Amino acid sequence: MASEKEGTKTGIRSIAFKALKATVKGLLFYAVYFILWTFIGSFAEIVPRLQSMVETFVAVYIVLMIIGELTGGTIYQHFFNAAKALFAMFYLLLTLNGGIINLSFQNLALLIDLRLLLVIAMILSLLGLAKSVLQAVNFVSEKAEPKLL
Fold first, then answer.
1. pTM of this structure
2. Torsions phi, psi for 16 (to 5 deg)
3. Are 115 and 100 in contact (CB under 8 A)?
4. Maximum distance among all Cα pairs of the chain, rounded to whole angstroms
5. What was the pLDDT predicted at 97?
6. How far, in Å, CA of 73 to CA of 125, rounded?
């Protein structure tokens, strides 16, 4: 009976620690976004819908990060990390229109080619996806192997 109470206490502590860790990571990520936005906020006047695109990305990324932290120690953590990498890839691809952006400002038409930057971002996201898949394989193989005494 006493061991059941200790098991419950450690389970509650573990969940509370994971929730605290996820909250701190989410707040730190949002603080970094907030600080960086003060520097790039002036571009929001030139690029239409920039602020809404960035805020949507940050919100979904933080949610995936928090869920990944809450599911730490399970296979779902790796699924959410893979989802985070896939989301970053596809969101960048969709918002940057394949890397070529056309802007018109007053009488000026501007064509910006961001394909090299997009390729670099895709490669980094693919590395994150590969890392998540390899961590999931490692997690499953560790669970399948019998422990030696």
1. 0.80
2. -65, -40
3. yes
4. 78
5. 83
6. 23
Bridge partners of residue 112, in order along the sequence: 101
pLDDT score of 3:
65
Token pair for residue 24?
């701190």
Q: Which structure tokens are listed for 77?
A: 């953590």
How many whole angstroms separate alpha carbon 14 and alpha carbon 12? 5
Q: Is 101 helix (H, G, I), strand (E, B) or coil?
A: strand
Stretches in the chain below the pLDDT threshold 50: none
Nearest to 62 by CA among 42, 103, 39, 34: 34
Beta-carbon contacts of 104 under 8 Å, excluding residues fewer than 6 positions away, are 110
Close Cβ partners of 119 (under 8 Å, ≥ 6 residues apart): 99
**CB distance 130 to 122 below 8 Å:** no
Cα first-last separation, the chain: 27
Separation CA 92–CA 122 (nearest Å): 8
Transcribe 44-80 into DSSP letters. Answer: GGTSTTHHHHHHHHHHHHHHHHHHHHHTTTSHHHHHH
Is the four-CA dihedral 132, 136, 142, 145 of positive or negative sign?
negative
Closest CA to 99 of 89, 107, 109: 89
